[in-house]
Amino acid sequence: MNKHKEILNFVSENKFGFFKYGRQIKDVKIGDLLNVRFKDGDDNGRYLVNTISKTDDESFRSKFYRPITGLVKIREGSSFGFVDDVFIHPDFVTKMNLINGSEVTGFALKTFNKSKNEWGWKYVNS
């Protein structure tokens, strides 16, 4: 999410990308669940939208955003870690002073890893 440029990154059941949201909706934050009708998208992941609205469908949310608690695994010499299948970015490892075996509580967000061409989960703290 880039509030300054009013751009949101998104994941859905079958696509991922980004779009400008400023004309359709205000007061958006990471983890918000949105109903979006797309016009079209390009090969770079940029989408145009028809409509956007917030929704509270918890069963739908759980497909993309889930709470996590567990012990972080950080290999010796690595700057990143994992809690089960959830990737923890090096910035969080540093910011939270994590070491191998530290307990972590937060949320996991479904993401698409372009370099591995696969879906996965990454840690977010809110």
Describe this structure as you would to a colleague.
With 126 residues, the chain is mainly β. The chain has 2 domains: 7-59, no CATH class; 65-124, OB fold (Dihydrolipoamide Acetyltransferase, E2P) (Beta Barrel), CATH 2.40.50. It is 8% helix and 45% strand. The protein has helices at 58-61, 90-95, and strands at 7-11, 16-20, 34-41, 47-54, 65-71, 81-83, 86-88, 103-113, 118-124. A hairpin with a 4-residue loop joins strand 1 and strand 2. The model has no long low-confidence stretch (mean pLDDT 87).
Number of domains: 2
Provide the CATH superfamily of the largest domain: Nucleic acid-binding proteins
Order of helices and strands: EEEEHEEEHEE
Number of helices: 2
Low-confidence parts: none
Main sheet makeup: 5 strands, mixed
**Spatial sequence of strands, sheet with the most strands:** 5-8-9-7-6
β-sheet strand percentage: over 45%
Distance between the termini: 13 Å
- Count the E strands: 9
The helix/strand class is mainly beta
Furnish the topology, listing elements before pairings.
Layout: E1 7-11, E2 16-20, E3 34-41, E4 47-54, H1 58-61, E5 65-71, E6 81-83, E7 86-88, H2 90-95, E8 103-113, E9 118-124
Parallel strand pairs: 7-9
Antiparallel strand pairs: 1-2, 3-4, 5-8, 6-7, 8-9
